């Protein structure tokens, strides 16, 4: 367990993101929660400025940060500011929460690859934000689409790999 790493992303409603990432090769655990906001101990009812995000625990011997970000750009629309599907607002922004310089460089490289591919028409609006803290969402949000298989999601695989 000591070799596992964590990545933090947001790309709209956290249910759909978690449902897709939790079964990816090399992903050992996922948890939905709140990132990048202005209050301590955010809740679903009170999370000003926070994005609905995802904590991904992964084994870098089995998958890379680049591969996780590649998949991120395959399952959400990175061109829509503060929106995914029917979900509108700052909570639904496309964001990568950066923990160090290496992650920042990798994120910039992947964004360039995605934009240069031409698969998404338009500019990627994903924000690169410093990681500060991850607050887990309420238990009923965790693995929501496993518990509620007919629940709402706007996330799905749109493309093959960008890498």
TrEMBL record:
Similarity comment: Belongs to the MsrA Met sulfoxide reductase family.
Transmembrane portions of the chain: none
Function: Has an important function as a repair enzyme for proteins that have been inactivated by oxidation. Catalyzes the reversible oxidation-reduction of methionine sulfoxide in proteins to methionine.
Catalytic activity, EC: 1.8.4.11
GO MF: peptide-methionine (S)-S-oxide reductase activity
Catalytic activity: L-methionyl-[protein] + [thioredoxin]-disulfide + H2O = L-methionyl-(S)-S-oxide-[protein] + [thioredoxin]-dithiol; [thioredoxin]-disulfide + L-methionine + H2O = L-methionine (S)-S-oxide + [thioredoxin]-dithiol
InterPro entries: Met_Sox_Rdtase_MsrA_dom, Met_Sox_Rdtase_MsrA_sf
Source species: Flavobacterium panici
Annotated protein name in UniProt: Peptide methionine sulfoxide reductase MsrA
PANTHER family: PEPTIDE METHIONINE SULFOXIDE REDUCTASE (PTHR43774), PEPTIDE METHIONINE SULFOXIDE REDUCTASE MSRA 2 (PTHR43774:SF1)
NCBIfam families referenced in this protein's UniProt entry, alphabetically: msrA (TIGR00401)
Active site: 13
Swiss-Prot/TrEMBL keywords: Oxidoreductase
Nucleotidyltransferase recorded as keyword: no
Peptide methionine sulphoxide reductase MsrA domain: residues covered: 6-154
Enzyme class: oxidoreductase
């Amino acid at each position: 367990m000591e070799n596992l790493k964590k990545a933090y992303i947001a790309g709209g409603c956290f249910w759909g993101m978690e449902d897709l990432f939790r079964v990816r090769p090399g992903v050992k655990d996922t948890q939905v929660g709140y990132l990048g906001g202005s209050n301590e101990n955010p809740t679903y009812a009170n999370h000003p400025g926070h994005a609905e995000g995802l904590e991904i625990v992964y084994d870098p011997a089995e998958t890379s940060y680049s591969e996780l970000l590649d998949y991120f750009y395959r399952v959400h629309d990175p061109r829509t500011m503060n929106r995914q599907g029917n979900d509108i607002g700052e909570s639904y922004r496309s964001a990568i929460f950066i923990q160090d310089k290496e992650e920042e460089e990798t994120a910039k490289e992947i964004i360039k690859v995605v934009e240069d591919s031409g698969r998404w028409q338009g500019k990627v609006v994903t924000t690169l934000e410093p990681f500060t803290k991850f607050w887990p969402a309420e238990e009923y949000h965790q693995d929501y689409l496993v518990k509620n298989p007919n629940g709402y999601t706007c996330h799905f695989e749109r493309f093959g790999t960008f890498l």
